[in-house]
Amino acid sequence: MDIFWHDACLEHDAGTGLWELPGDWDWLDVPEPHPEGAARLRTFRHALRRGPVAPHLTWRTGRLATDDELARVHTADYLAALRKACEGPDRVALEVNTVVGPGTWDSVLAAAGTSLAALESVRSGRARTAYALVRPPGHHAQPAMADGYCLVNNAALVAETARREGLRVAVLDWDVHHGNGTQEIFAGTPDVLTVSLHMRHGAWGTNHPQTGAPDELGVDGRNINVELSLGAGDEAYLRALDEIALPALREFAPDLLVCASGFDGSAFDPNGRHNLTAAGYRAIGRRVADLGLPLVLTQEGGYLRGYAALCLHSLVEGLLRLPDPLLHDPLAYVPDDSRPTTADLAAVRAALAPHWHFARDTPPPADLAPGRPT
Ligand SMILES: [Zn+2]
């Protein structure tokens, strides 16, 4: 399994805090560091280099993307404005929590290019699975808009590049937030399947309305949103995979699966309200590996960096199908409140039924049957 890295991903400075706008939080003595800092990516790298999974991994150096490559998923006007905002000397807030400045453009090019390098490794047959360990994250970035710490949509760029090379591509996003940028980029492209598992998180900032409901189906139902209630944990995510995402992926039968891999669904993440544990991410990795597809993964969220690094390590163990957990999880004690999941998944199946055989022709699992308590 290849891990792709580029030092320039560390250059982007997201700011001093979530709440750096003047006057908002000036009663804090010590400002909060912005959760999407370079320290989180360095911590992720350290976990994979020093953790017990290290002997299974091959480290590769990524590259910078070209302007033409970025233009596959973003408008020329947006890219020009983004580049200009990154020229400094002042840092510029593109929206309330998404700040750019000197160094950001190098990180943007490195994150996008390194994600493409991961794709190239898989396309060449050198690796079956390649993980682009990059920042800034990408899955909220829309064709003409930055959003939610995201500037260029790395996962969508990988998917679109593979699509142009003639591959049938699917995107699976388990970041705790809705992959709204990816949804929008492929909204008119029924030959790409997009699946997002996420919490019902509400609107944020000035330009991010609540999105990700089951009835946002795209063309021919090729956009699947599995919206899970607050508190959803390992069981909820695994049911969402087993009952919705994996049957859809098998029915769609892609040549390549792109995974937008976030760890902000963990029980301890400051930016999420879900309860996944390291064991849950390990099980997600195992299920994805069991699909038997060529895989490219891009790093998305995950903001309690120590626990997110453990979750990354555990996900990689699952992707490698290692038989026993290599690391002890010292924090896994939060109960998994999956009670709302049955209703959540029934709503998704009902929305998908006109478009997908699995949702209308296969009997629902026992606890989705009518009359059972939800
Ligand atoms: Zn997220």
Automatic annotation (TrEMBL):
Residues 34-318 form the Histone deacetylase domain. One of its GO terms (molecular function) is hydrolase activity. The keyword Zinc applies. InterPro entries: HDACs, His_deacetylse_dom, His_deacetylse_dom_sf, Ureohydrolase_dom_sf. GO terms for biological process: epigenetic regulation of gene expression. Its cofactor is Zn(2+). It comes from the Bacteria. Keywords: Hydrolase, Metal-binding, Zinc. PANTHER family: HISTONE DEACETYLASE 8, HISTONE DEACETYLASE HDAC1-RELATED. Belongs to the histone deacetylase family. This is Acetoin utilization deacetylase AcuC-like enzyme. It comes from Umezawaea tangerina.
